[in-house]
Amino acid sequence: MVNTLESLTEPLIRIRLELLYTELLDCHAEYTQLSSEADQYFKTLRDALPDLQHTVFLYEDAQISLQSILERSIYIQGFKDALQLFCELQNSSI
User: CA of 90: how far to CAs of 20, 77, 80, 86, in Å?
Assistant: First the structure.
């Protein structure tokens, strides 16, 4: 069921997360500021380490991949938790 649930929800997760990031950038000043600072710090590190450009790129790519896996896992777990809560509420009201 887990693989089926993940494959069925993959497009929903991608769309929802994109909307969430857009909303955060538009409506959450602290998130926007921290995101901008993180981007600037990373650019500074990348520029300061010209001999390590490729390694920095690989690090960034690995971090993005890890974040993507984590986001999906968190989303799926939240979905499972909501289903479990729904079932428990249904059972308790019978």
Answer: 29, 20, 15, 6
